[in-house]
Amino acid sequence: MRHHIKRSAILAAVLSIGGALWWTSQDRAVSQTSRAARRSDPVTTGKVVDFLRERFGIPDGTKISAQPFRESPVAGYYETTVTVDDGTNKKDSTIFVSKDGRYLALGNFYSLSSGSKAEILQHVREQFKVPANVSLTASPPEKSKFSGFEQIRVTATGERGPQSQDFYITKDHHTLLLGNLYVLSTNLRAQALQTIVTANQPSVGPPHARVTIVEYADLQCPTCARFQEFLEKEFLPKYGDRVRVVFKEFPLPMHDWSLTAAIANECAYQIQPSAFEKYRTLIFANQGMINAANVRDQMLVLGEQAGIDKLKLAACIDSKGSLARVEAGRREGEKLGVASTPTIFINGRMVTGAPPADQFNKMVDEALAQAETKAEHSNSKARTVAAKRG
Question: What is the DSSP letter of 76?
């Protein structure tokens, strides 16, 4: 077996947005990213820093810096050390950037001698410290959305049932990436604002609020349940009609009842929009009572508690009458690079995970201030035009 090329801490852990080990994580999704657009401009460390800040919703008060690029052991890639300093903790992480400026890789690269499934699974087991009583299987390599890479889905099966995640292997099967690939784009906020559909979506708050928050969530995700509780008990009472929160379904493939729950959730919106928020809250609050065997019955019981017609809800769940809405939300999220739940967009600014309340509120305050400034600028410009015409 060839040498281990380079170990680097996944940046998500450095930023405290998902340090749980893969096979036990309740909130991780299979990473899927939009098709890479070709870039003609050279990559710079400044673009990398801007991407990381925007992609992971890093607060403006947190400093990020990147060392000059250096040659890496991975063909076609530079490496750099990124330092994240929030004033209390200062951490370094090695990341990889393709020389053509198209991709950024977070994770560990391994050199492969044979590229066999057994060799790949051994690296997975060692990196993630997978217990011996958890079995690992790997799918055959398939075409990925990233030039030069194929993807291979690894499934871990243990007490919690099967959980899967995609990893990447070069087409020559000489190099394995246990981590995530991202399209290195620095216009993520603009892309989000253009992509996210907010019309005819479950939401709370006025349609024309200065700040729109869009949450992609999985109803089986414990972190999403805690975030919902925060929204209801702390956030919305504080910000009132200054914000609008739009809810999107993003059921994760490793969860065994989240898709059915998502269908039921969107059925509730179709049947009785006013009951949606209460129903969603009830599902989150009763996660511990729901399993793959009883999910349909539980959805109906909770639906009655939310005041939704049981017969209509049952018919919609059984016919999967809202599946198109669920799939639309998931496709939309995947296009934006959503890879875990909850993923939140604050006026287009991506926030992965549920940050501490003060951090989240600060980002919303920044968005409100920016919206106020933009509105004042527009009003001033309109007054100037009107004065000239007068």
Answer: T
Q: Residue 227: in which H helix or E strand, if any?
A: helix 222-230
The pLDDT of 170-179, averaged and rounded, is: 92
Contact yes or no for 186/51 (Cβ under 8 A): yes
Angle at 310 between CA 305 and CA 313, to 5 degrees: 105
Would you state the structure tokens that stand for residue 202, as one six-digit string? 């479950």
Domain boundaries, the chain: 11-183, 188-369
Entry pTM: 0.70
Q: Looking at residues 116-128, what average pLDDT do you find?
A: 94
Q: 188-369: which CATH topology? A: Glutaredoxin (3.40.30)
Give the angle subtended at the CA of 353 by the CAs of 352 and 356, to the nearest 5°: 115
> Does residue 31 register a pLDDT over 70?
no
Gap between the Cα atoms of 168 and 141, Å rounded: 9
User: So what's the pLDDT on residue 41?
Assistant: 54
Strand pairing partners for 157? 135, 162
The whole-angstrom separation of Cα 284 and Cα 382 is 46
